[in-house]
Amino acid sequence: MRTTLTLDPDVERLVGDEVHRTRRPFKQVVNDAIRRGLAPRLADEPEKPYRVKVHRTKLRPGIDPTSLNRLADELEDEALLGRASRARPGRRPGAGGRP
């Protein structure tokens, strides 16, 4: 169908930018934009619930599952000691509480 269409200046700029960016004809850009705009919205369609795929795995030999948090605990202890030593100038960690 052939018709005359008057575009607002901002829409004309958007279409022109898309023509330049995609190197497609003006007619094709306008038709594709109208199709996308008038197509049924994805939000109107019911969404499928998200399902997590379970992956069963085993720990590698030599890794003790009871000590997985040990490194995190050690790093946290070091951070706390560092913070405490900065709060009390002149004191060293591990110095038995004496200045």
Describe the structure.
The chain has 99 residues and is mainly α. The protein has a domain at 1-36. The chain is 45% helix and 0% strand. The chain has helices spanning 9-22, 26-38, 70-87. It is elongated, with a radius of gyration of 32 Å. The model has no long low-confidence stretch (mean pLDDT 83).
Task: Produce a short descriptive summary.
With 99 residues, this protein is mainly α. It has helices spanning 9-22, 26-38, 70-87.
Mean pLDDT: 83
Which shape, going by the Cα principal axes?
elongated
Low-confidence stretches: none
Strand count: 0
Order of helices and strands: HHH
Radius of gyration: 32 Å
Strand content: under 5%
| Count of runs of 4 or more consecutive helical residues | 3
Structural class: mainly alpha
The biggest beta sheet reads: none
- Helix share bin: 40-55%
For the record, give the distance between the C-alpha atoms at the N and C termini, rounded to a whole number. 90 Å
Spell out the key features of this protein.
elongated; 45% helix; mainly alpha; 99 residues
Could you give the topology of this structure?
Blueprint: H1 9-22, H2 26-38, H3 70-87
